[in-house]
Amino acid sequence: MSANAAIAVEYLNVNYRSVQALRNINFAIEPGQLIGVFGPNGAGKSTLVKAMLGLIPVVTGKVYFGDRPLTAQLDRTAYVPQRSQIDWTFPATVWDVVLMGRVQKTGWFNRFSATSKRVAAEALERVGMAEFCDRRIGALSGGQQQRVFLARALAQEADFFFFDEPFVGVDQKTEEILFRIFGELADAGKTVMVVNHDLGESTTNFDRLLLLNRELIAIGTPEQVFTTENMTRAYGGHVNFFSAAA
Amino acid sequence: MLDWLLEPLQYAFMQRSLVVAITVGIICSVVGSYLMVQRLALLGDAISHSLLPGLAIAFAIGANIFVGAFIAGVISTVIIAWIHTRSPIKEDAAMGIVFSAFFALGVTLITVIQKDNKIDLNHFLFGNILGVTSEEVRDTAIIAVLVLLSVFLLYKELLFYSFDSLGAQAAGLPVHLLNSGLMILIALTVVASMKAVGVILVLSLLITPGATAYLLVPRLHQVMLLGAAIGVVSSVSGMYLSYYFNLPSGPAIVLVVSTLFSLAFLLSPTYGILTNPQARSQDSSPLLREIRSLFKRGT
Questions:
Q1: What is the DSSP letter of A54?
Q2: Which residue intervals define the domain ABC transporter in the entry (chain A) (predicted)?
Q3: What structural domains and CATH numbers belong to chain B?
Q4: Domain A33-44+75-235 has what CATH class?
Q5: pLDDT tens digits, residue range B59-81?
Q6: Does the pTM exceed 0.80?
Q7: B170, A79: Cβ pair inside 8 Å?
Q8: pLDDT for the residue numbered A243
Q9: In a designed cystine with B53, which of A129, A203, B106, B145 is the match (CB 3.0 to 4.6 A)?
Q10: ipTM of this predicted structure
């Protein structure tokens, strides 16, 4: 049960309302890497992440984390959904949200331990949000909200992190903090998978890129993935990727 | 004033009513807070309307009406989920279909059996808190202990689930079990409340105290505690109004709690219409602007 387990996705097929959303996805990820998932709108990027975590039903396919199915080891995963999935008017403070990351480690019927509270406080400190502890979650900016969710994921002390479009609507400072911590997690041997909004974001920050458009177009280093052929297959002939990334 | 409050309590039926009023005020507000934050107010309405046929059948065969009502409430949520998952019908439409059908069946059954039984449809529709029996007090107390203990023991899991169900599921929490558990708590709460407020107005006691507290305090457990206080004040006041002015207890309770909500809506330090300068500065609503521009174009 080491943290340094590889992820293997085998023959993943997902349908969304009788339309094939993902077709025969196969890939493997070595531990200790920061992976960016790219592709056009409707390419199935969020669907891929949700299917890997068992949040939506799959037609076929297996996802292994080490030698066991990933869905049997959800206590070792942390997932941050898209901002639009969250009701930001919910009556909860920053502290409440970060402590949610300790619910699984705490166990049924137990109260949060002193260790859990220390881990949560350290996570908030690490994302620079410690002084907002008692603030209502809805009273924060988009970037601050994203950092609170990052702190929640850190508090989970997971081995495999999923972030769905974490850079949408965040400020420059938050983007830097997110990339810095993603890098630190990867250096510590964790696997970090990040779904991205578009190609304008700093793709060079990622160790590996996964290019998707209903099927897997390419996976590899940024240089390997960003070929004209791959981009045309993913985005079609209409989008000039190189000007979009400039 | 004190005499006015204490004098009725010398009667056993008023003591029973007081116990039920306090209990129902607490559990409705606590459980209803989950309905409010999950935007499931309509589901509370659906479950409460769906209780009637179970209640009628239980009465007809001499079984415990709480048990009958609870079974009907659970069956209705199962059918709603079934229609919603097995057809393209959306959840709110499924609720509308199921709860009106159950309600119609319940009213029909009660009308048929009330001809030769001492059962009054109005008491179930609008509440008759002054008429609770000691068995009903006992059942209400059992339900209250069950509900409050569940919420207390599962608080952190239910908070995670109701705030971010996907995140909770991805962390390995059994979200479908939590959701079913929450539905059962709601059904139990509505069953315990039907004698006090009636099935038509119980939604008010589920949603309004929590919504009032939500305008005043920032965290869910605070919303529940303050909501419970508001719920108790409302249901006890409603009980006295019912006693002194011979009103049906449901409408009396609902009028009190709605008044408290109006006060918070106008005067809340953070969200009040009159007290919050931000809310006040938006003097012209988009609707008014559009109507005005229509008239301008006409001239």
A1: T
A2: 7-238
A3: 12-202 (1.10.3470.10)
A4: alpha beta
A5: 889 899 899 999 999 999 999 99
A6: yes
A7: yes
A8: 45
A9: B106
A10: 0.91
